[in-house]
Amino acid sequence: MTSLHRYLAAAGIAVLTAVALLGDFRVVEHVTSFFEIVFAHPFWFLDTVLDVRVWFAVAVVILAASLLLYLYGLFREDSDALVHAGRSVEAVVPVHDESDVMHRSVEHLVASTYEDLAITIICEPDDQPSLARAAELAAEHDRVEYIQNRRPGSKAGALNDAIDRSDADVIAMFDADQEPHPELIAHGMAALRDHDIARVRSLPRPTGRIESMAYYEYLLLFFLPQKLARTILGLGIVGTRSVLIERSVFDEVGLFDEETLTEDMDFTHRCHQANCSVRELLYYPCYEEAAHTLRDWWGQRVRWISGHVSVCHRHLSDWRNLRDRAFLSSLLSLVGTFAVGSLLSVTVPLLVLVALAHPGVVAMGLSGIYGITLTTRGIDNYTADTEGFDLAWLLVPVALTLFGLVVVQVVVSYVVGRETSWYQVEKHGR
């Protein structure tokens, strides 16, 4: 999207927010002159900022705009755009202590309709169960081979080693527990005719109460907001799973950083600053296994947010980057995450307090958020083959509060110098 379109989109969202604030929620009922407000109420701005009605309006407008962008993206995307043969593609599946689940990704990739596809499982040298299972899968399928990681210790190292050894035109990357659609590679290769990177949607499978809570959290905090962030800031998430990347991208921006917890976000920002063209694909999504316990949910998000903080701090350390517009958009997206997280940490207590005084406001605000959430789930039922409407959507305020607390914990821990290590969730083989 051109810069002009981004500015127009930002202006439109600002107008929608102002209309919601001044009209539906009547935050400012009597507008007098600017100076009268300032001198009569010195803390008028702070009162407005802390007004829950303001945040309900902002949340509903942001999510509604994001939902419209999602629908617009679906409308523009041609699900029949498929390329079934041509350039060579190597799908890399790094595994670590995942012998029970690696067959999901490998067997779904084996069923791919793209002909010129090779599948490489890369195992850690000390992970004998995964090596044994990888050997079995390689013996069962002609498309599959396995190798040992020569740069052990991180997912980034495994990916780098596999990329170094490969001579394929395109590198595709998937986690061991993902389930790529048979047309995913073919659809991604069609997108690469005009782009450098094709990122396919990856969503947690809502199989239980905690898993469904993670799914709705993913919709409200990641999937939908990213549509708005990309429209305004131009930041396209690259990631290191369910993504196809031209080899020329690695030649230009380098391989993955093996020292960071979130090598995917670091790589995303480097690609953004190098003006790589990222195409986000919404059809033929890739399912992945969600955390099954609150402990795993918490640990996984602590690692994610810790990596974000680290990437942000690294960029901030070089003040010269402030002259780079691409850097500024990347930085704003990260800082926005931290600010929103701090506000989310008080979601449930604030809702309880406000409901006592303004039950109608809370009812309207939640109705808007729940309506957008369930509408998105309905679209996923149609386009992504999710099923039904489980009751976990009622836990959205709890999920938002917990996520906010994770952000607060991570930021405080980072400031006091406490390091966060890699966290791997328990996965169920089936």
UniProtKB/TrEMBL annotation:
Membrane-protein topology: Multi-pass membrane protein
InterPro entries per UniProt: Glycosyltr_2/OpgH_subfam, Nucleotide-diphossugar_trans
Stored Pfam families: Glyco_tranf_2_3
Compartment(s): Membrane
Keywords annotated in UniProt: Glycosyltransferase, Membrane, Transferase, Transmembrane, Transmembrane helix
Membrane-spanning intervals of the chain: 7-25, 54-75, 326-344, 350-370, 391-416
Superkingdom field: Archaea
GO terms under cellular component: membrane
Alphabetized GO MF terms: glycosyltransferase activity
Record's keyword annotation contains Zinc-finger: no
Name of this protein: Glycosyltransferase, catalytic subunit of cellulose synthase and poly-beta-1,6-N-acetylglucosamine synthase
